[in-house]
Each structure stands twice: as C-alpha cells, then as structure tokens.
C-alpha cells in the first residue's frame, strides 16, 4: 500500500481574470518524492505552482496538502502549513545583503534550517553573506532563493526552473543541492525545461499540455523512452 500523498491535486482549474489557464489538472506527489512538471512554454506549469500557493485565487477543484484543502486559503495561510515557493524570477532583493535576504521571510514552522545548517548546505553563500544581492551570480541568487525557503520550515518545496539561465557547471551544483534536500526528506515539485537536469534528480515526471496532465512517467520510463517525452516537448 502506497503512502498517502503529501499533495493531491484533483481536477484543478485556474484563471487569470477571465482567462482560463488550467483545465482540470490532476496529479499527486508522495512524501519525500521529487516530481517534475515538464511541458512546453505556456503549458501551465508556473500557473500550477502559483495556484497551489494561492497566488492565483480564482481556482476550482481540490488541492489537498496533508489532507487539508488549500482552495479558499490565502497565500500566508498556505505558507504556514509548510509549503515554500521559489519563483522563476527568484525575487532576490538587490539592495539587501545575502544575510538580510535570507532572514527576510518569517520562520513559519518549526524544524526549519538554522543559519549554521544553511551555510553548511550552501557554503558559497556563507562566503558572500555580507554581499549585496546585486553582486551575486545567477547561481548564487538561485541558491539564496532556495535557502530562504528552507529557513521558514517548509517541507514541501515548489521550485520553478532553478536551472534556467545558468551555466552547466552551476546547474550541476544546484542538482546536487536538490538531491541532498531530497535525501533529507523534503518533498519537491520542480518545474523544469531541462530534461537532462530533470532526469538527474526526479522520481517521476508529469507532462503538462494546455493546462492538463497528458502523461505521467517514472524516471526509469523516461530514461527508457526519451522519444515519448520529446514528442510532447517538440524537441
Ligand atoms: P513557461 O515555462 O513559459 O513559464 P508555463 O508552462 O509555466 O510556461 P504558464 O506561465 O503557467 O506556463 O502560462 C500558462 C498560460 O497562462 C500561458 O498561456 C500564459 O500566456 C498565461 N499567463 C501567464 N501569466 C499570465 C497572467 N499574469 N495573465 C494572463 N495570462 C497569463
């Protein structure tokens, strides 16, 4: 018998004003699992994450996290349950130092990483702790964005394209960090266009097309049949 899902998204639809973007998305993620959302630009991956954390309020269906339905909850209520969202644009405050950025969001739940643990996990952030946000490389900004949500006590991490715009060697480093987080028991949903990166870290892949789930495959299934997923992505 499989464990109850950590997050269970059921027939989720969501709108930007009058424009419907999600059309009945259904998928789940198990405790400790790393799931990717893959699909073409505009498929609705980012919108799915934004709907989960309540940044899109106009949504129907069910989003159950540890049994509680998030539909109708406000973003701060959802964050308090232990869900951390790392947006694609990373949202690092350029006028603040690394340390100030890190300490900006409140601790919402017990069990979050301490400063010492964070700097152990992200040694290059320690070296840069007094630097301003603007002085950071893209990779360092991405690490800071992840570190910041780990401090809040989130246990379910929603990461939107952490590899985007980064050099291969940095992508590899981010991949190692994500693997370590998974080993520590975090549950992770990763939006990812980079299939190579997705394969390196994930347990399962959910393919999104036109605001719907069109396929779900295990990492082994993906590795055995890259053509299947490439046909969806049109690559
Ligand atoms: P990408 O990788 O390009 O971000 P995605 O799969 O994450 O792709 P979304 O960003 O979720 O796709 O976009 C899904 C659809 O919603 C697209 O058609 C997009 O044009 C539309 N959309 C996104 N943001 C808004 C917005 N703020 N207002 C209206 N429509 C939007």
TrEMBL record:
GO terms for biological process: L-amino acid transport. It comes from the Bacteria. Keywords: Amino-acid transport, ATP-binding, Nucleotide-binding, Transport. The keyword Isomerase does not apply. InterPro entries: AAA+_ATPase, ABC_transporter-like_ATP-bd, ABC_transporter-like_CS, BCAA_Transport_ATP-bd_LivF, P-loop_NTPase. One of its GO terms (molecular function) is ATP binding. SUPFAM superfamilies: P-loop containing nucleoside triphosphate hydrolases. Residues 7-235 form the ABC transporter domain. Belongs to the ABC transporter superfamily. This is ABC transporter ATP-binding protein. It comes from Nitratireductor mangrovi.
């Amino acid at each position: 018998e499989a464990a109850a899902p950590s997050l269970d998204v059921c027939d989720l639809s969501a709108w930007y004003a009058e424009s419907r973007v999600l059309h009945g998305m259904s998928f789940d993620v198990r405790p400790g699992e790393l799931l990717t959302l893959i699909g073409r630009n505009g498929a609705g991956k980012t919108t799915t994450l934004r709907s989960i954390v309540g940044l899109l309020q106009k949504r129907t269906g069910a989003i159950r996290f540890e049994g509680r339905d998030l539909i109708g909850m406000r973003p701060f209520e959802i964050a308090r349950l232990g869900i951390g969202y790392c947006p694609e644009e990373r949202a690092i405050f350029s006028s603040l130092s690394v340390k100030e950025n890190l300490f900006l969001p409140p601790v919402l739940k017990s069990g979050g990483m301490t400063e010492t643990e964070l700097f152990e996990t992200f040694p290059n952030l320690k070296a840069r702790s007094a630097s301003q946000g603007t002085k950071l490389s893209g990779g360092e900004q991405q690490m800071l964005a992840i570190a910041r949500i780990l401090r809040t006590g989130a246990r379910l991490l929603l990461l939107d394209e952490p590899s985007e715009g980064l050099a291969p060697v940095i992508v590899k480093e981010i991949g190692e960090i994500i693997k370590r987080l998974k080993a520590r028991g975090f549950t992770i949903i990763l939006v990812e266009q980079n299939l190579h990166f997705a394969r390196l870290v994930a347990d399962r892949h959910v393919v999104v097309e036109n605001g719907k789930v069109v396929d779900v495959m295990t990492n082994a299934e993906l590795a055995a049949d890259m053509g299947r997923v490439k046909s969806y992505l049109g690559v």
